[in-house]
Amino acid sequence: MQLLKDKIRRDAKIVENRIIKVDNFLNHQLDITLFNEIGKEFKRRFANKEVTKIVTLETSGIAIASITAQYFNNVPVVFAKKHAGLNMNQDVYEAKVYSYTKDQEYTIKISKSFLCPSDKVLIIDDFLASGSALMGLYSLLSQSGAEISGVGIVIEKTFQEGRKLIEEKGLQLESLAIIESFKDGQVVFR
Hints:
alpha/beta; Rossmann fold; two-stranded antiparallel sheet; Xanthine phosphoribosyltransferase
């Protein structure tokens, strides 16, 4: 998606040639015009799939998933929580995920009342790196019996090999900007 690649080239910051900071448009301050185009592109790429729910991970995926849902007839968005409050139902699906950027393991949870075997789920997330977050979501959806219609990623870092884990599950994976490497503080796209 050229619009996204241009935005990354112009506004992203590379830290130590291993982390890409896109907090000024993707996961802290949000560029809603860009998000609308991202939602349209995910709809185009998954047009042949039945989608009854969109699932993402707290926090950065929520806005992207919500805007994307508009293009799938406003299907519900369900997000896995990293921090379950006292008001969360205790009957949940759970999985462990490791955050590369935070260097921390989380237990993610989704209430069993929001997923069922008849659901056709599109997973949407901001990043694919090692694949831990997506494998956690895959585990939650497998526990529920829901069918995974596909996986939509805004930015993929191929050098961290998360793609392989998703492809081994036989899932359609669509990444809008695929980064092969960082070189001298610059992004090298596939």
